Amino acid sequence: MIELQGVSKQFGAMTAVRNVSFRLEPGEITGLLGPNGAGKTTSIRMMTAYLAPTAGKVLIGGTDLAVDPGLGRSRLGYLPESTPLYPEMQVEQYIRYRGALAGMGRREAGMAAGREIERCLLSGVRQQRVGTLSKGFRQRVGLAGALVHDPEVVILDEPGNGLDPAQIVQFRSVVSELAQKRTMLISSHILAEVERMCSRVLVIGGGELLADGSIAKMTRGSGRIVVSCAEGDGARLREGFEKGGWSVHTLKGEPGEVRLSVMKVNMTRQKVVELAASVSVVLSELREDQPSLERAFMEILEKAGRGGRGAA
Amino acid sequence: MSTQGRKRPKFLGPMVAVAARETGSLFRMPVGWVVMALFAFVTGLVFVTSTLIPSQPATMRGFFALAGWLLLPVTPAITMRTFSEEYRSGTMESLMTSPVSEWAVVLGKYVGSVAFVALMMIPSLGLLAILVGVASPKPDAGPLVAGYLCLMLLGMLYVAIGMLASSMTANQTLAYLGTLFALLLVLMLPAVPLERAPEWLSRAVGYVNVHARVADFSRGLIDTRHVVFFVATSAMCMGITWLMVTARRWR
To answer: How far is B170 from chain A (nearest CA, A)?
Structure first.
């Protein structure tokens, strides 16, 4: 279990994270999303006791990191964003070293390293120097090192970076297996991956927690009906939608054309056609966009005024 | 390890792991071998040309004096990596989020670096064996023990100062130069004329007079006050290094 209680972090006059609270339970895979500079990495660094919060508390398995960071970290496995490793060490040597750092004896560290080498599919490179490995393998070595002491909470910062499609599939299956008895938090830019792997999503923007909920709940209402009409009819059609109480966004359309996006809640294709006819507008396009995390994410950021055009 | 009832992390095991990695990494890269080879070559050359001379007294004094000066440029080369490289490559984040205390990291790196200095001295035992084999009368044991002890104490102090400099920057060159200048400052301080300075300042400068302490060791004197000076000053530098490492959490 990992819990943040009103956590804030200030760097001089700048507030990087403001009053963030949430609680993650075992068996849950949670995605952490936010544009660049939103405060994701700072939040993660506070969850891993790398940075101390300016205010608030971080609890790992019930242990307050400010009171006993050592015990808290013994419950935590963390893979930082750039997968920092020692290039001169061999794969097995590095994983055993991480076990020794966790207080394991030689034998115990050797057995744990063997287990993680199997789990992370590193048998073929166990004697190879880390510096000679491809990015995908390095990522797996970092993951094996983070898991060697069998942590209750696993935090992965951008774990999919640099993995090829086959490696992503393997990685997904490792994460699913790990999540059976652990609390997992994955920060990622790849929204499709988050959508596949995670059951819950936290969205951070401008240092604040903008949304926290299941993917189903978050994407509900993110479906859209997109319509296009001649440029001269656009204002009339938009006014018609707004009078009906529907939320409308103007999208980029073809030259001489207006493209509008209408929230799909309580809206059907039939209603759109009827409304267009009632304001004497001929539609040149009518299609439905299915709900997606990407759209939900953009809307959350737009609502919060954080600009939805950045990466997740 | 069970996920339930997790125990408080240990200190000694992780510290030894950090120390072993620190020493081992120097030998997994050319820098460790090059430093050792150069140290052995230069000290060996001077030993052959200045000590192995017929009718000269059988003493390693020349080796100890040279080795003491060689530690000056060599120790910063060993210590510049300790923290700066971890900061630069990002491995500090993995290390400091592992279940290992800041003290275990700082002491582990210290022990690992001092162990390398000790390993650098090992080839000189061959020179000593040659001297014992050819000299008559045999060299006195006292100055030899005092000489090696002095080198190790110097090494401990230089490593502690080097690690402190390394803990302050992610730039290895800066860490090297900072250490070198700090060591030169410590060694040159007694040469500063202090006739008009307050008495407390003259006494303080006199206390850090490394030359005078080394001179006693070279005469074969093992004064516990000198040993305490080197150990206490090294411990103080380690304490400040620990503060620097810990303070990064509170940025």
So the answer is: 15
CATH number at residue A268: 3.30.70.120
B30 within domain boundaries = yes
Chain B contact present for A138, CB below 8 A? no
ipTM: 0.89
Q: Measured between CB atoms, which of B3, B10, B93 is closest to A103? A: B10
Structural domain contains residue A305: no
pTM summary value: 0.87
Query: Which residues span the domain enclosing B230?
Result: 12-48+56-250
Q: Which domain holds residue A285?
A: 224-290
Q: Which of A52, A74, A112 sits opposite B249 (nearest CB)?
A: A52
CB contact under 8 A, B8 and A51: no
Report pLDDT digits (tens) over B7-42: 667 889 999 999 999 999 999 888 899 999 999 999
Residues A49 and A190 in one domain: yes
Predicted confidence (pLDDT) at residue B61 exceeds the cutoff of 50? yes
Q: Is residue B3 part of a domain?
A: no
| Calpha distance A181→A201 (Å, rounded) | 19
The domain boundary, picked from A214, A242, A273, lies at A214
In a domain, B2, yes or no: no
**pLDDT tens, position by position, A52-86:** 999 999 999 889 999 998 899 999 999 998 899 99
- Token pair belonging to B28: 């997994």
Chain B: closest CA distance from residue A183 (Å)? 12
Structure tokens at B119: 């390993």
Three-state SS at A143: helix
Which spans in chain B are helix H?
Answer: 12-27, 30-46, 61-79, 84-89, 91-96, 102-134, 141-166, 172-188, 199-207, 210-218, 224-247
Provide the number of structural domains found in chain B: 1
Please report the pLDDT score of residue A307 as a whole number.
Answer: 52
